[in-house]
């Protein structure tokens, strides 16, 4: 893995909004509106951060009609896998991330269709 790729990943994890999005995506595939509801952010802001995460190779998307669904990308290295595992497990007790996970459970059945 190149130094540039490592730096790009750490920059992705350094932003609170991107970290919150990554943490949510460890729970499974989500559409932009689900993420917006949980983190209380605008569509342009969420989309901008998802684009950054996609360029960093951390997130992938698929189209379903008008909707775009995002999920974690398959790790390209053991280093990337360990970082994602930490976001999904090590940080579960961080208050904001814990609230986000709880809120996701409560809105999980209300889909944006």
What is the percentage of strand-forming residues? 5-15%
Taking all residues together, what is the mean pLDDT? 88
Shape: globular
CATH architecture descriptor: Orthogonal Bundle
CATH class value = Mainly Alpha
Largest sheet: 3 strands, antiparallel
As residue ranges, the low-confidence spans are none
Please report the number of helical segments.
6
Q: End-to-end span in angstroms?
A: 40 Å
CATH-wise, what's the superfamily? Winged helix-like DNA-binding domain superfamily/Winged helix DNA-binding domain
Radius of gyration: 13 Å
Give me the secondary-structure category: alpha+beta
Instruction: Please tally the β strands and state the result.
Output: 3
Task: Count the domains.
Answer: 1
H/E series: HHEHHEEHH
* Biggest sheet: strand arrangement: 1-3-2
Share of residues in helices: 55-70%
User: What would the CATH topology be?
Assistant: Arc Repressor Mutant, subunit A
Write a structural description.
The protein has 113 residues and is of the alpha+beta class. It has a single domain (3-107), classed as Winged helix-like DNA-binding domain superfamily/Winged helix DNA-binding domain (Arc Repressor Mutant, subunit A, Orthogonal Bundle), CATH 1.10.10.10. The protein contains 6 helices and 3 strands. It has helices spanning 3-14, 16-25, 32-39, 43-55, 78-90, 95-107; strands at residues 30-31, 59-64, 67-72. Helix 2 (16-25) crosses helix 4 and helix 3 crosses helix 6 (95-107).
């Amino acid at each position: 893995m190149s130094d540039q790729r490592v730096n790009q990943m750490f920059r992705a994890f350094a932003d609170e909004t991107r970290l919150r999005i990554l943490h949510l995506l460890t729970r499974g595939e989500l559409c932009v509106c689900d993420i917006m509801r949980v983190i209380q952010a605008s569509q342009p802001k969420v989309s901008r951060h998802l684009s950054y995460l996609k360029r960093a190779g951390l997130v992938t998307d698929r189209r379903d009609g008008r909707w775009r669904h995002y999920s974690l990308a398959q790790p390209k290295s053991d280093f990337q896998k360990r970082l994602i595992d930490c976001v999904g497990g090590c940080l579960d007790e961080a208050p904001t991330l814990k609230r986000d996970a709880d809120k996701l459970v409560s809105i999980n059945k209300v889909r944006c269709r």
